[in-house]
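Task 17 of the worksheet. Students: predict the tertiary structure of the chain below and write it out as structure tokens. Keep your answer in the requested format; marks are given for formatting as well as content.
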Amino acid sequence: MCPALPSRLWSLLLGCLLCACAGSSSSSDAGQDAAQDGGGDTGARPDYDPAEAFLVTTPEGTALCHGFHQGRTWEQELALVGQIELAAGSLVLPRREGGHPGDWVARVLFGPDRRELIPQGPGQFEAEYEAVQPDDHSRWLYRFQRAYELDGTPHAVEVRIFVRRIDGAWPEEILIDDPPWEIAISGRLTIGPGQDTLTEVQAFGLCALPEDGRKIMQAQTASGDRIELEIRQGPWYDTCLVAGETACYFLVRAELELGAYQASVEDRFRLVYNGSHHNWFDKYLLLLDPPAGDVHAVLVIAPDFSGANGEVVKLDAELAEISRETIAEWTTR
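Model answer:
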């Protein structure tokens, strides 16, 4: 039998039990915004007030892939392939102009050899509001900027988010891997002074692109070689460097049958879209790994707007021409 305790001690014990019970349920509100819980949340999602800021959520594995610049050669496009890998997690972007601290880029791989750029200090966001009438067309622009270096040459990376109202209201949360059309994400890499846009500036768009902008082309030669190409469309102008009515296409997949050799290529570093004005005179470079004997790459020259037949050009390890053959049949769907 328990000894009798003074009433004051019983009161203290009862108070401790009540506090313990209340504390055990506090984890259930993880992720509430600051307007609801006063900012005391310790969940994985940061506290924020949706009336004053956007919550940006980036899933694991999200990256931006190289776009194209009309007027470049395919050799120039190959030299500027790359990926900007974004840091997974959630961050808060206040709807307030000016600079905001933040770190959004995990790493940048650049060039056919996939070399990693070396960060030079922290990055930050710059916010800008563009008022447009009617007001539903107004937008917020956030630029994440960070300096890098490679072999002594400065490189600058910028990732942009354009946010417009959706159904008349600002979105509370932005999911980076599946944004609606009102939200555009793009990237820009500047090498050195960036004065020559053909060789010193590259545009980027999300590697994962929607299927509604998909186009599939098939080429077949008289000798029986068959190549299938899949391109997808990114946001206009932001994800490529173009003028006029030119779509920002990305080459995302290729299937090849070269005699007995068969390959499926989805590695974006080995897929290069060499786009043109109005997308009328396009070329597609496919790097083979493993090679098809002496053939290390294939350049597909699409039939052009003037009606000229396309060609399939086979290249060696130095990307010198081995042979070329006219495309006998070309279909698009």
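Marker's comment: DSSP finds four helices and 23 strands in the chain. The helical segments are 7-24, 34-37, 74-79, 197-200.
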